[in-house]
Amino acid sequence: MTDPRIERMATVLVDYSVSVQPGDLVQIAGSPLVAPLIEAIYKSVLLRGAHPYVTLDLPGLLGLLFTHANEEQLKHVSVLDELFVDRFNARIFIYCQANTKSLSNVDPAKQVVRKAAHRQLRDRFLHKISSGAQRVCWAMFPTSAYAQDAEMSLREFEELVYRACLVDREDPIEAWRDAEREQEKIVQYLAGKREMRLLAPDTDLRFSVAGRPFIACAAKQNFPDGEIFTCPVEDSAEGHVAFSCPASEEGKEMTGIRLWFKGGRVVREKSDKHEDFLSEVLDTDEGSRVLGEFAFGTNEGVTHCTKNMMLDEKMAGTVHLALGHGYPEAGGTNKSSLHWDLVCDLREGGAVYADGELFYKDGHFIIKFPKAGQKGTQCH
């Protein structure tokens, strides 16, 4: 018997996240590890009169590509991937790795070659999403590998993921709509703000958000979700920032990352682990040392760092900054094949100011929201 929480996940993804309509072409991408969820989604898509296409990825195939492919093969862009970008109405990607360190020993130069080759397709993909021409959601499914990274049992990790997805609720879709309404209050407060200042241990960073909207995220493109994001003005970041959660890129885990910004670019970087690789990541291309995103995590179901960015960036009480590609819907203009999220925990001694006004302290929004017809006030 299928876990009812998996059935609820499928319902949220199909009916709410990508809003499948009759006649839609719908891609469902995952691995055999997530067969129960794929089957539930497949059935839901069929019942809505749409056309499901399942693409299965076997664990280890990407590692084989990097080990045996020549440069021409690394640069090859799948014609199937182009078809999915150009023709499909909705796409659901399910993250479900069996080994999160499988690419740890891959030559970084090969990874850079492959990313650069896929940049044009990625840009086209992101444009389709931002224009509303394609509805896409990246979902997470609990696996033993993710549980091990989080130093939890699989059962404990499942509980965390399902709680963060709100599928432990009787009506998770309505719960996500409630979450979005709460986020919109923050978005309205931040509308028109020009400068942000982030203060925390070993952190003092300023950047402009002038003309950049903040956007609420409530399970329309990520699942689980829970964040409010914008794109900083590309040449505005000044100062330094330390990231408290471990971060991974291509299977390599880095801890104690510190970055220094001048004129909007990272001019110095340090980490306690894999510092040389950190520099290689930041040198991916011309745009990879520029901020492409700033966001507040709002999901109270995620309570501690799990070493999985799908969860950690959503954790209530944190903010995250992304290096690399910016989102056009939030005014971002930075172009890069990199978009790398890094998390800063503000629950013990952090603050964020908007235009000089303190509105976020120790992991909490401290503004009072007005009733209809009233102005908001600050709450200390």
Enumerate the strands of the largest sheet in spatial order, edge to edge or round the barrel: 14-13-10-6-5-18-19-20
> What's the tally of helices?
12
Main beta-sheet strand count, sense and barrel state: 8 strands, antiparallel
Backbone CA Rg = 20 Å
Which bin fits the share of residues in helices?
25-40%
Oligomer: single chain
Distance between the termini: 50 Å
Beta-strand percentage? 25-35%
Low-confidence stretches: 371-380
The structural class is alpha+beta
Give the mean pLDDT.
92
Number of domains: 2
Give the overall shape, derived from the CA principal axes.
globular
Number of strands: 22
Short recap of the structure:
This protein is α+β, with helices and mostly antiparallel strands and 380 residues long. The protein has helices spanning 4-17, 35-47, 61-68, 71-75, 79-87, 108-117, 119-130, 144-149, 154-164, 172-190, 275-282, 309-312; strands at 25-30, 51-56, 90-95, 135-140, 195-200, 203-208, 215-217, 222-223, 227-230, 238-242, 247-249, 252-254, 258-262, 265-270, 291-297, 318-324, 339-345, 351-354, 357-361, 364-365, 367-368, 377-378.
